[in-house]
Backbone:
């Protein structure tokens, strides 16, 4: 039976808190009232401990699951099924897992009288602010089915982009892992046995061979130090990125990296254009839409711009003027936004720009991977060639001395 954490008031007005077991929130509320307690807040015990969300031991809801659930909800809403009944139907049909638990909690909140957007917003780990804001706009305008369809399309597009990136990186990462493993094996086990022969002959070794010997000794005898240095570096990095200034510098540096920076920019522009376009198309005010978009776009250099843009628009400025004043946005996007503002079709132009940048990103990733793969093969061949050369040079010298 699920456990719920509650905060309540006794009949005399004194506060009370604790946990209670019940099948759902409604039953927990009834049990508390039966005990003379007037509940103020009730939430599943697994959700909150010391006011913070626990994520470590909870399996996240995947993007394909969320997209499919949204598509099914849109279909039910389009069939004039009440929201509570639609969520209940999805809950009953869902396989056991984290999404089923989430839908159960959303259903309980709907039963207590909450709107769909408010019920979803209580699950921020699953439903982002952009998601719940679009749902709220859909409820207010009576176009919930249309909004949910757009959300499902957007989530499916994001999953397609994510899958494309993962697929593109799989082979290069495998090559890096295999290549590193081969080099470690050569340095730790093969090279030492060959070096013994050179040491017994006491011949003068070439510089490249001496460097190989030193590297091999470092790998064999100092592997624990290398691991320790790596762990300390990772720990120091994790501590450093807790500071906002360090994160801002890191995000700024990423944008300046050759090839990678251009890819990141295209991905950010695609996400910015599509999210902002969808929010505006759903009826979300532009100030709120920019605030949400700033949270969706994780690069802090762009987030800083969105904060400035919101202030300028509040003071009577336009989005195109704000974009034009920044070097983060290409002239083509600025022109499209300007045309959209003048023609009253800003959201449509943003969505077109988002689709265009997504296509550019996909083609850029394909070109980048086509270039990266032969470079990795060349690097692996060069590394192995250096090892072979370092081993063969002393052998050739020994042959010359024998002759």
Residues:
């Amino acid at each position: 039976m699920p456990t719920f954490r509650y905060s309540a008031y006794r009949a005399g007005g004194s506060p009370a808190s604790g946990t209670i077991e019940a099948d759902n929130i409604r039953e927990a509320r009834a049990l508390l009232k039966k005990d003379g307690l007037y509940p103020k807040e009730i939430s599943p015990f697994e959700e909150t401990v010391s006011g913070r969300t626990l994520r470590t031991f909870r399996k996240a809801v995947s993007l394909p699951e969320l997209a499919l659930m949204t598509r099914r909800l849109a279909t039910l809403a389009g069939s004039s099924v009440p929201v509570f009944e639609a969520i209940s139907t999805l809950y009953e049909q869902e396989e056991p897992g984290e999404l089923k638990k989430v839908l159960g909690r959303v259903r309980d909140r709907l039963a207590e009288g909450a709107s769909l957007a408010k019920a979803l917003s209580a699950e921020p780990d699953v439903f982002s602010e952009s998601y719940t804001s679009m749902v709220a706009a859909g409820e207010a305008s009576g176009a919930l089915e249309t909004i949910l369809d757009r959300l499902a399309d957007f989530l499916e597009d994001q999953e397609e982009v994510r899958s494309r990136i993962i697929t593109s990186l799989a082979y290069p990462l495998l090559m890096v892992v295999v290549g590193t493993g081969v080099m470690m094996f050569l340095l730790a086990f093969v090279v030492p046995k060959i070096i013994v022969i050179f040491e017994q002959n006491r011949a003068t070794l070439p510089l490249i061979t001496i460097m190989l010997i030193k590297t091999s000794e470092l790998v064999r005898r100092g592997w624990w130090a290398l691991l320790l240095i790596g762990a300390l570096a990772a720990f120091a990095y994790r501590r450093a990125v807790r500071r906002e200034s360090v994160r801002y510098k890191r995000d700024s540096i990423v944008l300046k990296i050759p090839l990678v920076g251009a890819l990141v920019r295209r991905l950010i522009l695609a996400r910015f254009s599509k999210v902002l376009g969808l929010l505006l198309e759903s009826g979300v005010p532009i100030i709120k839409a920019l605030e949400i978009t700033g949270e969706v776009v994780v690069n802090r250099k762009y987030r800083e711009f969105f904060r400035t843009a919101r202030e300028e628009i509040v003071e009577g400025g336009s989005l195109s003027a704000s974009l034009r004043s920044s070097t983060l946005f290409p002239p083509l996007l600025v022109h499209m936004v300007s045309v959209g503002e003048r023609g009253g079709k800003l959201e449509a132009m943003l969505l077109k720009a988002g689709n265009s940048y997504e296509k550019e990103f996909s083609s850029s990733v394909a070109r980048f991977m086509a270039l990266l793969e032969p470079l990795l093969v060349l690097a692996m061949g060069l590394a192995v060639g250096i090892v072979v050369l370092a081993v063969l040079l002393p052998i050739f010298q020994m042959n010359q001395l024998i002759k």
Strands lie at 3-10, 15-21, 37-44, 48-49, 52-53.
